[in-house]
Amino acid sequence: MFRRLLLLACVSFMLVWLIDESSGIISPYDAAAYPICIAAFAVIYVASRYSSHLHQSNLHLLAYLIVAGYLISTSIWHHIGSNALFSNAAQWLGLNYVIAYLFLEVKRAVSTTIVVLAATLIGHYVVLIQNHSLEDTMGVVLNIAVAHVVYIVLLWTVVRLRVKAAQANSRINLLENYAYVDLLTGILNRRGLERVFDELGIDQITKDSQRYALMIIDIDYFKQVNDQFGHTMGDKVLAKVAAKLNRAIRPEDIIGRWGGEEFVVLTLNRTPQEVLALAEQLRLGISQLSLDDVSGITVSIGIGFSNLAKTRQEVFNIADSNLYEAKQSGRDSVRCSI
Ligand SMILES: Nc1nc2c(ncn2[C@@H]2O[C@H](COP(=O)(O)OP(=O)(O)OP(=O)(O)O)[C@@H](O)[C@H]2O)c(=O)[nH]1
């Protein structure tokens, strides 16, 4: 975007230069300034493209200062002389504020436009006072000052409104994310899982659907952890188990806390053997966990495969009845029906 604007600036300066030259109305000042500005834009373009250690925001500021410097200096130049009181060269100066508020960071735009305004007023005053009375000079300078302050206040207000709208949006996004995340474990909650399942479109299973497996992972005898070590320690165990499970799965697998001490993992496009191997790996990993005085934590895992069902609910039911079997057969085990 920035480099495209630099190209636009180069082309605009070249066009104005060409027009002024061909119509013969070019001032000696502009005849020298146009090529200097074009060369400066080209250098900044090259620096922005090829230099990795130059900060882009500094290049933005530099490009801006060249435009603002040119506009102010050419206007001042046109105000030199005894007939310059009614020069319209200041008409482009509003651009200095528009560009600053559009392309610089807000803080930088505020400080830069204050400097630009001061330079504009002082510069015009210094050249006008040479050939005109204090009253006439102040008339022109105050006129410029009022117009430019209006520019700055309007642009600042617009930018402030935009910043506030952006902040409100990011707050809404944050709250929306909170609604889908389990704050204790940092993984998806049941709502989040259901949203992801909906987005994946895995509700109805056809022969063309992508293959998936659902694991329901339930901590064994978790009530005893709470009873023996307290609810706070129980919470820590939940967080640690979630973190361990989360680390063990692939980025494309989906994990969430279904509720209480029950987690769900959805794996996509793995063979049943791979799913079983993963489940065993998860079970073993949890059995090796220890937290302060709490050890011997185990999980039971029930698996449902999508190729044995017609809907997601059926896959869930299969996983649930396999979990029940795992619990019945003594816990700390994995059950599935292939
Ligand atoms: N600390 C803590 N405990 C929770 C939380 N959610 C549910 N629990 C507890 O988890 C326990 C679940 O107990 P049960 O359903 O009897 O299951 P269990 O003791 O794990 O026994 P099995 O599942 O049959 O092996 C209950 O004591 C709940 O209070 C939570 O967010 N934090």
From TrEMBL:
The keyword Endoplasmic reticulum does not apply. It catalyses: 2 GTP = 3',3'-c-di-GMP + 2 diphosphate. Residues 210-338 form the GGDEF domain. Its cofactor is Mg(2+). Keywords: Membrane, Transmembrane, Transmembrane helix. PANTHER family: DIGUANYLATE CYCLASE DGCM-RELATED (PTHR45138:SF9), REGULATORY COMPONENTS OF SENSORY TRANSDUCTION SYSTEM (PTHR45138). The chain crosses the membrane at residues 31-47, 59-78, 84-104, 109-128, 140-159. GO terms for molecular function: diguanylate cyclase activity. One of its GO terms (cellular component) is plasma membrane. This is diguanylate cyclase. The keyword Transmembrane helix applies. One of its GO terms (biological process) is negative regulation of bacterial-type flagellum-dependent cell motility. It comes from the Bacteria. Its EC number is 2.7.7.65. InterPro entries: Diguanylate_Cyclase (IPR050469), GGDEF_dom (IPR000160), Nucleotide_cyclase (IPR029787), Rev_trsase/Diguanyl_cyclase (IPR043128). Pfam families: GGDEF.
